[in-house]
Amino acid sequence: xxxxxxxxxxxxxxxxxxxxxxxxxxxxxxxxxxxxxxxxxxxxxxxxxxxxxxxxxxxxxxxxxxxxxxxxxxxxxxxxxxxxxxxxxxxxxxxxxxxxxxxxxxxxxxxxxxxxxxxxxxxxxxxxxxxxxxxxxxxxxxxxxxxxxxxxxxxxxxxxxxxxxxxxxxxxxxxxxxxxxxxxxxxxxxxxxxxxxxxxxxxxxxxxxxxxxxxxxxxxxxxxxxxxxxxxxxxxxxxxxxxxxxxxxxxxxxxxxxxxxxxxxxxxxxxxxxxxxxxxxxxxxxxxxxxxxxx
Amino acid sequence: xxxxxxxxxxxxxxxxxxxxxxxxxxxxxxxxxxxxxxxxxxxxxxxxxxxxxxxxxxxxxxxxxxxxxxxxxxxxxxxxxxxxxxxxxxxxxxxxxxxxxxxxxxxxxxxxxxxxxxxxxxxxxxxxxxxxxxxxxxxxxxxxxxxxxxxxxxxxxxxxxxxxxxxxxxxxxxxxxxxxxxxxxxxxxxxxxxxxxxxxxxxxxxxxxxxxxxxxxxxxxxxxxxxxxxxxxxxxxxxxxxxxxxxxxxxxxxxxxxxxxxxxxxxxxxxxxxxxxxxxxxxxxxxxxxxxxxxxxxxxxxxxxxxxxxxxxxxxxxxxxxxxxxxxxxxxxxxxxxxxxxxxxxxxxxxxxxxxxxxxxxxxxxxxxxxxxxxxxxxxxxxxxxxxxxxxxxxxxxxxxxxxxxxxxxxxxxxxxxxxxxxxxxxxxxxxxxxxxxxx
Lengths: 295, 440
Fold this sequence. Notes:
A: two-stranded antiparallel sheet; 2 strands; globular; B: alpha+beta; D-Maltodextrin-Binding Protein, domain 2; two-stranded antiparallel sheet; 21 helices
């Protein structure tokens, strides 16, 4: 009887693999093949026309990337941008989630307003911001110069690297914090309320309650939110490129250096370098959090 | 057991859906590009006329063509302007380019360098029509790099220059500007930035528009990106003089990085008497009610220079002979006077003729929407003839100019000098190096 069961189990496993086979084949075709092809063309000079032969160029594409000063500047800007946007948008989303984790009149309306920036298409928000900060007829300049008379001349918001970086960072935090908020609200609703009541009876402060009850509950979600947001912000392109040309993050660098000239070999080389950087970064985050968990 | 059967059924359905999807795609392509069972030759025509009214015009031309050529079927493929470049690259990369493609001259040059275009077929169509039938400026900028052929068949154009509100100039007793100094004089007379009044509206952002406008000033001072031997000539005294002039002129324009909408709004709203813009501004001016006060002048230091875009039709390389012949016939059909006028009438004022016989034809000039600009016809025709472009030297069109534009080396230099107040010599050096790196 036992051996029959085991045999059935083996059959079931094979059957399960057979059923999974179409999906696995699709995964290999749609993810595995492009990844391997990307590595192959990073060593080639690739023409657009498939009837023209690709030329093997060895490490030339990688050399071109590593010898380019603007690549390192771009990595530096992107790392600062990623850390700022990920940290602040996560912290802000968490703070609002903790605040919203209670019943009050108009909660649904406030909830809708909070997630508005996340659900509205990025292009609409970008153009709204560009009009707000327009050098000629923007409402921000109108308020500063014409209404409050705080300055005689309008600052060129998106034309100066420093102000452009600050504005793009604020924009990204505002655009992305609802994702953290939604993730934390979902997990906070599952925390047993009696734990907070017990903490209250022990005379715990709000901060102590957060550390003892809330933080352990949200930690797995926090790791996921931070990891995903780090990856997404690291590769950001549309929001930055459409807002300003003064913030040269890696997505913009990749476009300017490779796609604008259809240099797919170089684009592939840059993407591999970026993959190594972001993979190391995410592993570092996970290792750090897991070590804290072990402690 | 039932669960197992259900699982098998679902997996089978998934696989069959996937394979069916692949199957239908393949057969669709076969039908669209090759010979159909009916014995007709089917070709595709990819263009940017996406608005419904324009699509109707294109379809009407196709219907007329099919009536006259019963063994040919033409499929219209309208593609949005924003997706056009990526569509060309994607289709070309997969060997699926349509038989006929509408290109700007820059896109056409890039396609030629990627060997997407049948240059012999293009030349045959132009020769058949006769080179003398086209405006010289239109043919000059569509020549191949070695000057022996053409990157596409010109079908229409738009040109760009300084649009002047003559009524505003008359109020201040000023004449139409004829050279660089005159332009500065007029701009200075109108400049009152505190009250949001500007001497001229110029683009200064890192964009192709800025490069296009600046190119007119540089070329009018004999400064080009390349010389006739394809040496990079960005960092030259002539170019420096043009950059300095542009910076001075931009001080009478709106602050910061200005783009297409800023320039158009300032001129149409009468915040400035002069603006650098293409013929696409005409309808907006007409709606604003001052079409009769409009004049077109060209930047002029050593010679007057207009910028413009010649829209060409490319014929794809690597097709069957029957498809190539069909494509040649259709492109030739679009060059026939009546059909070409129908094409131009899709956007009266915006697009302009490249065929001499069209400009004076009553069917073209007497169109109601075009009558308001009748006085500008000669100026616009002269601008098409004065067309000069960066990267076009002594009848040679260097295809690398497309990459220079795409990377924004020139517009970045202008933006840095004008908006960021960067050192002109340093920026010229940087731009020179950037362009040299591109053509290596």
